[in-house]
Write a structure and sequence with these properties.
CbiD-like, 2 domains, five-stranded mixed sheet, 13 helices
């Protein structure tokens, strides 16, 4: 049931052994076109062809349900996408003369409930590019205005694996895409999701966002800041720099960074790309901070004993010496300055049971009770 490209040649991802695939928006445009063709001609096509935004055309097999709705099965290729195998279904009903096509959210398609996404509250979660693709596909069939209702069986369960609920997209998945193509393990899509969530928080009037690098850090952030709206807790991965710039751009007053010691060390050294393949921990920086804080020799030696910040973190905890960790952000390094505005920041190690005051060295709980988590609060 894989789509075919009428003018295709293997893409870059294909040449590397990874299969590209198609967005939910591309699949929705194909399903809508097939359903409209059935209304106009009385025949149910087994295959349709649609145009992608760059101009090339792709063909898809079409399935039909007992209600006469067209379905295109999404193949996510080699991307770990929760919508892989989703049956993007479209039902079309004539609206009579005059007016425009109307796109509706049916079963398990999300509805916008919060501002900041560039879509009206109450509208179906169909992003602008997919909307244009769908309307272009309908225009290839005819001019009679129709209602198109999209649905995806199981879409609500799929949406639970996304940030939709946090963004205020309720009831199911979104119809997404910018190029019509899904590239495996796309950093562009992750980056876009980070920016989008910060935009939604700003549109709600929030003034603080918490940036977490991954699942464990996000869980720690949720425990540490239970009063914050979930939309303010942003998993940024390695896009801390992007997130900070966006937070400044939308007028956030405060950013809290929750991450592992290694990520924090890289940020303190001014390194915004914190992926372990792209940058290294500056152990010399850790050693210098340990000396400046008056740490015992064992802590100073731990800074350069290995290439990881975790070893240094553990040594600080074992010896009850949090001073070097506090100095990671005192004074604020250049990487935390936004648009030439100085920032003030503070660090503290934290657990649910034992949290010394921010920026104040003190004896922490035993190592087993202390997560490798750092909190950096930055006032923009």
């Amino acid at each position: 049931m894989e789509p075919d490209e009428t003018d295709s040649s293997p893409g870059a991802a294909g040449r590397k052994g990874l299969r590209t695939a198609w967005t939910t928006g591309t699949c929705a445009s194909a399903a809508a076109k097939a359903a409209y063709l059935a209304v106009v001609s009385g025949r149910r096509p087994e295959r349709v062809e649609v145009a992608l935004p760059p101009g090339r055309r792709v063909g898809f097999p079409v399935e039909w349900d007992s209600a006469g709705r067209a379905a295109v099965v999404k193949d996510a290729g080699d991307d770990p996408d929760c919508t892989d195998g989703a049956r993007m279904t479209a039902g079309v009903r004539a609206r009579g003369s005059g007016g425009d096509h109307v796109l509706r959210a049916g079963e398990r398609i999300g509805t916008i409930t919060k501002p900041g996404l560039g879509l009206a509250v109450g509208a179906p979660a169909i992003n602008p590019v997919p909307r244009r693709m769908i309307l272009a596909a309908l225009a290839e069939v005819g001019t009679e205005p129709v209602d198109v209702t999209f649905s995806v069986p199981g879409g609500e369960a799929m949406a639970a694996e996304t940030t939709n609920a946090r963004l205020g997209i309720l009831g199911g998945i979104s119809i997404l895409g910018t190029s019509g193509v899904v590239r495996p393990f796309s950093t562009a899509s992750y980056r876009a999701s980070v920016v989008q969530q910060i935009d939604v928080a700003a549109a709600q009037g929030e003034r603080t966002v918490v940036l977490a690098t991954g699942t464990r850090s996000a869980a720690a952030a949720a425990r540490l800041y239970p009063a914050l709206d979930p939309v303010c807790l942003v998993e940024v991965g390695d896009f801390t720099g992007i997130a900070l710039r966006r937070a400044a751009h939308v007028g956030m007053a405060k950013v809290v960074f929750v991450g592992m010691a290694g990520k924090l060390t890289k940020l303190a050294a001014g390194v915004m790309m914190t992926h372990f393949h792209r940058s290294e921990v500056d152990t010399a920086l850790l050693a210098a901070l340990a000396v400046e804080a008056g740490a015992p020799p064992a802590v100073v030696e731990a800074a350069t004993a290995t290439a990881t910040a975790r070893h240094f973190f553990d040594a600080c905890v074992v010896h009850g010496c949090l001073g070097p960790l506090a100095l990671l952000s005192v004074p604020a390094p250049p990487a935390w300055r936004m648009r030439d505005r100085a920032s003030s920041s503070r660090w503290s190690s934290s657990t649910t049971k034992d949290r010394p005051p921010s920026g104040v060295p003190g004896r922490a709980a035993p190592p087993a009770a202390v997560p490798e988590t750092a909190i950096l609060e930055t006032l923009l």
